[in-house]
Amino acid sequence: MPTYTPPLRDMQFVMHEVLKVSDEFKALPPHAEVDADTINAVLEEGGKFAAEVAFPLNISGDTEGCKLDKSTHEVTTPQGFKEAYAKYVEGGWAALSCDPAYGGQGLPFVVNQCFYEMMNSANQAWTMYPGLSHGAYECLHAHGTEEQKKIYLPKLTSGEWTGTMCLTEPHCGTDLGLLRTKAEPQADGTYKITGAKIFISAGEHDMTSNIVHLVLARLPDAPVGSKGISLFVVPKFKVNADGSLGERNAIYCGGLEHKMGIHGNATAQIVIDGATGTMVGQPNKGLAAMFVMMNAARLGVGNQSLGLTEVAYQNALAYAKDRIQMRSLSGTKAKDKPADPIIVHPDVRKMLLTAKAYAEGGRALQCFCALLLDKELSHPDEKVRKESGEMLALLTPIVKAFITDNGYEAATMCQQVFGGHGYIKEWGMEQYVRDARINMIYEGTNTIQSLDLLGRKILGNNGATLKKFGKLVGQLVEEEGVNEKMAEFINPIAYLGDQMTKFTTEIGFRGMQNPDEVGAAAVDYLRVAGHLVFGYFFARMAQVALREIAAGNTDPFYQAKLQTARFYFAKLFPETATLMRTARAGSKVLMDTDLALA
Amino acid sequence: MPTYTPPLRDMQFVMHEVLKVSDEFKALPPHAEVDADTINAVLEEGGKFAAEVAFPLNISGDTEGCKLDKSTHEVTTPQGFKEAYAKYVEGGWAALSCDPAYGGQGLPFVVNQCFYEMMNSANQAWTMYPGLSHGAYECLHAHGTEEQKKIYLPKLTSGEWTGTMCLTEPHCGTDLGLLRTKAEPQADGTYKITGAKIFISAGEHDMTSNIVHLVLARLPDAPVGSKGISLFVVPKFKVNADGSLGERNAIYCGGLEHKMGIHGNATAQIVIDGATGTMVGQPNKGLAAMFVMMNAARLGVGNQSLGLTEVAYQNALAYAKDRIQMRSLSGTKAKDKPADPIIVHPDVRKMLLTAKAYAEGGRALQCFCALLLDKELSHPDEKVRKESGEMLALLTPIVKAFITDNGYEAATMCQQVFGGHGYIKEWGMEQYVRDARINMIYEGTNTIQSLDLLGRKILGNNGATLKKFGKLVGQLVEEEGVNEKMAEFINPIAYLGDQMTKFTTEIGFRGMQNPDEVGAAAVDYLRVAGHLVFGYFFARMAQVALREIAAGNTDPFYQAKLQTARFYFAKLFPETATLMRTARAGSKVLMDTDLALA
């Protein structure tokens, strides 16, 4: 059976020593008083909840799965899930970074980010139930009417109700412009909604008394395509004026999917049979409103894979120290044992360090993004808010795609460390691989992320935001360019930054002549960008570590960080050499293949 | 539900047009009469068996799994498995390339190779039952006493009985030197065997009246470690002198593993409680005898992933043509539809072509290896036999590791083409990923394969065999060096061949000073070698295609082959740029990480 220890020390390092979040919070009125001690105390408790309440339900939840009673349309979640949720609500965890106006604790997002990383390590399938609520909360908070906010936000904040995103239909996932669910205006200002949705995560369950579905649908006179989509809030139970639950709404679960993983989460087919809903935001502007939710969800999906990477790593590391098999190539290490622990083998170390480096790089990036979100929402200076939002928009597809691709690779490698035992359910490793797999698919496939990055976020504004990230890299290069000890961390990112600038211009020109050139390069480009970002954060982490060591700090944490950074630059970062080459290979070898793909 | 069409045309291309197997067979007395028509007719029938009998049981077998009755120790395989096996035996498929002296059909291994590729596409879990028998057959054929051969080979040839390999124990997989199962000599020349084995594929089932277990165990006076291991044949039912079944032997299934995939195959814990066995080969030379089986099994595992790659590709291709979603970046393609089929998107093509190129490269390599095996066993010239065996030994770890790593990547990409539907069981794609995963682990993990390749097969003989493969590449380069049309296929392998030669010398020197340098480079090295080999075969396939086109052949197959080869060299082969770099990065960044891995 796997184990899990919350990585509090590394979170503290990233937040307090690298990003210095408390200094940043001083400029943000709602968080000006939030200091390191507060954050650490919250996360320590959060880590306990993750490790002690959610984690023990992970394998059993996978084995049991969810059950639908077709006669009542009610779903039973795996044993213990409901009770764990009650503890979650009782502990106030749902409210962590919600608006105090609706009962929230108002803590910065970066705290919620770290809490959710631990929850995802502990139990991704369980964590998706409250996780989806956050998206619904954000969306209603940004676009709901005063009445909608009054009805729904306090309950979503407390966790008394959960929320969902009902987007996908059988014939459309990526291409929401094709959706068919109808919304007919009623005399009382509500809408009568009819349609069929699929793949609705946490779409039905027995944890809460109500579920707040946010549903994309079309008005009768809506333009075709994505410009004719509106957003509606459709609760499972209608809500009376006094906030009490009214009659059952005609929105129910028609089936549950049998999936590769995340068995503990109910992936529901949702039948909407003339249900009553109210509109969120403006008519035909539903996609824009939904994107508030989607962007939060994309960061959340990256965080799911970050969590899985960390827990897979911890267990593979423990196994590699414990399992004895063969002798070290360079001579016996454990003379008192019939064989050496497998951690003596270089490739076992490589697999472990890959997962560790991806976890630590991902953690730095995710915290940086959460801090940008805090600034976007709370900084008094509009320019800072705007620039923070733009930088976050640039980094969001990288978080979603790069961290989830890495997470699948890392989970696969950690499983490999276990040899045959990694393939057996009871060890828990194969579940991490199966769970991690969905993160590359949902909330926009990783290919879609790459097109969002290169097409919209980079070429769409002539590389302006990318240049701002490049400036951060440039500043670090300038700061540390003469520091010999930093050369091994600085030179690679300086070189790659230059390369990317050139290639971005090149692909911009090519794309104007043939847009397929952008599509052909995008996935490779995103991975290069991901390495530039990870490289930047590893360099910053190394910078802090070197300074601490120079100042006489003997905490082995800093030497460990340098070792991981060195590994990263020597063994993972060089992937960019191939990626630049294949990105440059162009679209012809892909598109002139009608006969090969006949 | 997935579909499967046997890739007979591509098999014929590889066998008859690229490798010209019938010409080679003329030199092999047992196969001198085997012509293309015979091979094609057998494979056409074999393809029907795979597609019509084994394939329909793939998803149901995965869903049902195997069931153990703990009171009788009997295992029930999924519905239909037993009946399909009866048809397999009835059709004579078990005997395809077995020795006519024991009732076999004596066809070349290359035919069996292609037949088994199709069986693996159809149903890997089912195919493992007869597949494991082949290893037991080969081992007894090479090392059994006359009596053992007389008793066991006819039944294994007909398929009336199946065989297993009982190697792994709970505390030892890779490191068989640690094994503890005991074999005590008895007065009648038999051995009394006691111990516990795990992970025994096809270890118990209801398909045949007897199961022939080949068991590694230690004699009482055996030296410690791998030099003290002997091999025994331990049948489930003892066999009377007249060949009829005697009493139940004390070897039984104590449990079945719950696994990530290959649910239809019974992965058994085997309890051996004073069972009666006879020795195969010499005392304490069991590992050598077992390696006959292991080498066959390693080629077989590569073939499993080749089969999965092909079937995953076929289904992803069909889906990509059928599923409409978004418009092409370069303008609407399907004007009559509300969206374009997703095959218009460059990255969807990239995922499809990756799987196709890995399937076609793998098929060429596997057939080449099967032909080497035929030559090793049947060529009248001892020198040819020896050299064929050496070349096969060099290529075996590449087949095992490169094709299985590629297969997992390909299955994952083909699943990705399906978007969210790829994560749902009914589409069948997630099963291919789960099944493909084991192939990177069993029969020696892919790390072990890389050490076998670099440490033993290459540095172990100072690169002598590698040079022979290099000579094949050199010949092709010389033949086609002045052919402009071949330059795009020839230049990359000529360059990489040079690079590898240099790096092999370099790593040989470094390894003498520090053996961990070999361990640190081996996995990357194997993938480079894999690309050199695939590159060589793609160049040879392109050579044939270009010649056919030049001769006026208008079969679109040849243009399709050139398109796939171009894609391969442009988008997959460049991985070697990174791999050479990371292989050269050395062992220090892996081994000086005790603090990071604390």
TrEMBL record, chains A, B:
- Record domain Acyl-CoA oxidase/dehydrogenase middle: where: 165-273
State whether keyword Nucleus applies: no
What residue stretches are annotated with the Acyl-CoA dehydrogenase/oxidase N-terminal domain? 82-160
The record's listing under Gene3D superfamilies reads: Acyl-CoA dehydrogenase/oxidase, N-terminal domain, Butyryl-CoA Dehydrogenase, subunit A, domain 2, Butyryl-CoA Dehydrogenase, subunit A, domain 3
Tell me the keywords, alphabetical order.
FAD, Flavoprotein, Oxidoreductase
Residues of the Acyl-CoA dehydrogenase/oxidase C-terminal domain: 284-451
Reaction catalysed by this enzyme = 3-(methylsulfanyl)propanoyl-CoA + oxidized [electron-transfer flavoprotein] + H(+) = 3-(methylsulfanyl)acryloyl-CoA + reduced [electron-transfer flavoprotein]
What Enzyme Commission number does this protein have?
Answer: 1.3.99.41
GO molecular function terms noted in the UniProt entry: flavin adenine dinucleotide binding; oxidoreductase activity, acting on the CH-CH group of donors
Q: What does this protein do?
A: Involved in the assimilation of dimethylsulphoniopropionate (DMSP), an important compound in the fixation of carbon in marine phytoplankton, by mediating the conversion of 3-(methylthio)propanoyl-CoA (MMPA-CoA) to 3-(methylthio)acryloyl-CoA (MTA-CoA).
Q: Which PANTHER family match?
A: ACYL-COA DEHYDROGENASE, BROAD-SPECIFICITY LINEAR ACYL-COA DEHYDROGENASE FADE5
Q: Which family does it belong to?
A: Belongs to the acyl-CoA dehydrogenase family.
Name this polypeptide is given = 3-methylmercaptopropionyl-CoA dehydrogenase
